[in-house]
Amino acid sequence: MKKTLLVLVLLAGFSTIGWHFRDQFLKPPGGLTLYGNVDIRGVDLGFRVGGRLQEILKDEGDSVKAGEILAKIDREPYEHELANLDASLAAAEADQRLKQAGFRTEEIEQARAALAESQVAKKDAENILTRQASLVGGGGTSQQNLESAQAALDQTQQRVKLAEAKLRLLEAGYRPEEIAAAEAKVAQAKAARASATMRLQDTDLKSPSDGVVLTRAVEPGAIVQAGATVLSLSLEHPVWVRAYVHEPELGQVPPGTKVILTTDSQPHRQFHGTVGFVSPKAEFTPKSVETPELRTSLVYRLRIVVADSDGSLRQGMPVTVSLDSTPQ
Question: Is 40 among the domain residues?
Fold first, then answer.
């Protein structure tokens, strides 16, 4: 019995020494150890336009680079739309040039000739009226002939005014409002063409960032709607670690604190990070619980930005976080 008690006492002593040894020699250099998980953002990719899916260039597990084309929609309908709007723009620009240039020189010369002709007719009508007026007193002509000559003169005078007005109109060119309307039509046609160009470009689905394809949702030949998910992508940057710190240790990890990150799969591989965000609110403990015993159980969420991720950090992977004691 005494031997058994002695053995238990020795085991307890060795256990105490072991825990003390671990705390003193295996404790991270910074003195503070936190635990968290890798948080990698993902994005569901889809086309901004609808159509028949022509080709998918990437499959699940493939790495992609920012700007790389991942899938394509049939371009032909959008090419026809752009060609139609090119023609509309050309017509609007031609009308704008016409309005800005004014009427042709030949049209103006024709109006001048018409004015000169009407002036000659007016002069002839004046001469006839003068002769009729001189003859009506001596009985050489009738009053009716005199009145007819006066009417003919009035008609030629109106033709002269009409010809003068037409000449002034042609010489002045188009009104400012007509030119402004033509310019507005050109601007409208350009905007429509720019939208069609954008839609044509959107038939190529490009990667917004470096990453890895997680899910391939559709296959070539399918009719996809605008915005429907075609591929799901896990982004390589930024890579974050979500960790939690107790309230008494909160002052040791303000934003900007340098930390070292290790994983269970690569315990000897160190990653470096920086605390980028400290939540202003405690989590897991109800706000109403503020007893002295439970106050120290409050934890605050940290977001740590990993500076040198090499692609081996995976979503949700457990991570050990310690303060970086390297001199800055």
Answer: no
Tell me the one-letter amino acid at 309: S
Do 71 and 206 sit in the same domain of this protein? yes
**Other CB atoms within 10 A of residue 201 CB:** 13
Binning pLDDT at 50, 70 and 90, where does residue 41 land? confident
Q: What is the CA radius of gyration of the chain?
A: 45
In this structure, what token pair is assigned to residue 60?
A: 């699940």
| Phi and psi angles of residue 130, each rounded to the nearest 5 degrees, phi first | -65, -45
CATH for 223: 2.40.50.100
CA proximity to 53, closest of 163, 227, 218: 218
CA-wise closest residue to 220 among 78, 70, 81, 82: 70
Whether 181 is in a domain gets the answer yes
User: At residue 83, what is the residue type?
Assistant: A
CA distance 246 to 241: 16
DSSP state of 46: -
Verify that 87 and 187 share a domain, yes or no.
Answer: yes
One domain for residues 206 and 192: no
- Please give the Cα distance from 151 to 148 (Å, whole number): 5
DSSP lists the bridge partners of residue 277 as: 303
Residue 245: in which H helix or E strand, if any? Answer: strand 231-246
174 with 226, same domain?
no
Question: Does residue 189 sit in the same domain as residue 90?
Answer: yes
Instruction: Judge whether 306 and 258 are in contact, CB under 8 Å.
Output: no
pLDDT digits (tens, 9 = 90+) for 286-312: 444 445 555 556 788 889 898 888 777
Residue 79 has pLDDT above 50, yes or no: yes
User: Is 205 exposed, middle or buried, given 0-12, 13-18 or 19+ CB atoms closer than 10 A?
Assistant: buried
Phi, psi of 151 (to 5 degrees): -65, -40
Same domain, 190 and 221: no
Closest by Cα among 19, 73, 25, 14 to 49: 73
Q: How far is CA 183 from the centre of its chain?
A: 27
